[in-house]
Amino acid sequence: KSLGEVFVWALGAFGLGACMVFHSLGNTHLKRYIGARPAGAWSAFVASFGNVLFWAASAWQGVRFKPDASPTTMVLWLCVGGASTWAVAVNTFVPGRIGFALTFTLGIIGKLSCGLLVDALGFTVRRRPVTWTRGLGVALVFVAVVVFKVSKELLHAREYAQLDEPDHPRTYGKTDPCSPAAASP
């Protein structure tokens, strides 16, 4: 493969990760203002609309669907649907509890680990063994998550605690519209 082709595909993969952050940010924002169920419904609508556009573009390009009702294909589709549902749920609820950076860094560790397993088992064109360098890469990302979390908890605990105070200058006098205090007169 040419360097240009590798760059284009790498840029696409990076864009996927960036889009996941925006997807989660949108879900978290919507959940806060319209509730969890409507936010999930909007997310499903946007995803479905995107799928319709993708199918229309594929049909326009002349791509045809090849039906395959084998049991293994059906199980794979169930796994894909379950994974997509899980991703929407995690992207909607987890960042508000542990933060966006930690959520997506842990997600990357999960992707790396599962990617190593899929490659090692040969689900792709050919098996790619788990080498010490690939294992080290996953371990280094894990160490980075631990350092990130520990530094946040230990070094910045006081600053984060102050940000939670309602009259702290960085809150700009705003209150959480979903909090019980905001609902009371």
From TrEMBL:
Region (Disordered): 166-185
A Pfam family the protein falls into: DMT_YdcZ
TM ranges: 6-27, 39-62, 74-94, 101-125, 131-148
Domain of life: Eukaryota
Keywords assigned by UniProt, alphabetized: Membrane, Transmembrane, Transmembrane helix
Protein name stated in the entry: EamA domain-containing protein
Organism phylogeny: Eukaryota, Sar, Alveolata, Dinophyceae, Peridiniales
